[in-house]
Specification:
This protein is an alpha+beta fold. It has four domains: about 40-50 and about 275-355, Beta Barrel (conserved putative lor/sdh protein from methanococcus maripaludis s2 fold), CATH 2.40.420.20; about 55-65 and about 195-270, Efflux pump adaptor protein, beta barrel domain (Elongation Factor Tu (Ef-tu), domain 3), CATH 2.40.30; about 70-95 and about 165-195, RNA polymerase II/Efflux pump adaptor protein, barrel-sandwich hybrid domain (OB fold (Dihydrolipoamide Acetyltransferase, E2P), Beta Barrel), CATH 2.40.50.100; about 100-160, Helix Hairpins. Helices cover about 25% and strands about 35% of the residues. The longest helix has about 35 residues, at about 1-35.
Amino acid sequence: MRKEMKSRKKIVWTGIAVLLMLGSGGCRKSSSVLSIPQLVKTAEVVAYGGESSVTYPGKVKAAEDVKLAFRVAGPLKKVYVSEGQPVKKGQLLAELDPRDYQLQYDATAAEYEQVKGEADRIIELYQRGSVSVNEYDKAVAAKKRVTALYHANRNALDDTRLKAPFDGYVQNKYFSAPEIVNQGTPVLSMINDRYFEVDVDIPASDFIRREDFSGFYAVADAFPGVRLPLELIDVSQGANYNQLFNVRFRLKQDAVKGLAAGMSVTVTIGFRPGAGGLAMLPVASLFQQDGKSYVWLFDEPNRTIRKREVQVEQIHKDGFVLVKSDLQPGQVVVSAGVHNLKDGQKVRPLPPVPASNVGQLL
């Protein structure tokens, strides 16, 4: 009887074990059935055929901002202009007391006339064969020496008068009469008023696209809504310590009345249509990792997604973004829920919304 009871218990426990095994197998089978590809919303990559542009802050500055100095030293006789005064090229700006330079010039001029006359007579006699070669060489050397001295003193006298090198206006005045100024010491500073310059710094991503530049304009903070046309002067071929490249533009002074050096502007650089492999994508298709922008590219044959890096160029108000990448028109990217996906994950695109389902209510 006892043996029969043990046999029945053994059968019961064996049955329980079999049921547990069947249960766990059923769970595994049901979990595999539930492992289905995730539904995702997708959008096609569209090639961008319009113009793109970028904007950078800049500042208006004088095209020529120079400091003017005398080439000789002496006491100031008079400064003929004041700060802010417009001047013309060649106009007399300031003058040194020419007394000492006038005396040197007068003495040299007298010696020049005497030596030149004697040398010319000896040269003429030499050509007739009346004087020796030695006397001829001395006459020629004397004439060259006194001629050089004469021109040097005449130039020194002329250099006591400081004239405007271009049309513009006086920015600063550093000395007044009768102060003594040294040779090369700035006395005045001038700004060219024919045109201004605008400098901006662009990143390497735009520098490598410089051949695709198509147009430029600036908008001054003081004149909002007024486009100021720019003319490209040059693009630096080396980056600065911030890894940016300097671009210089010319801006006409009469582009807008009241424009002045030192004003802040926003410079817009345009690119040719379709330049640089640009594409349009929904903004929601982008996600960030390690400071870079990516999208999920849908691999239709394998029904999987792959991470693809893109470079954002411009965000539009209609919910789309202009990117630069190796994406091809017609390829498909995930356009929603991109932050919950993994590289290589199997997905299933949502079916397109029927045209009759207005507002996607059905």
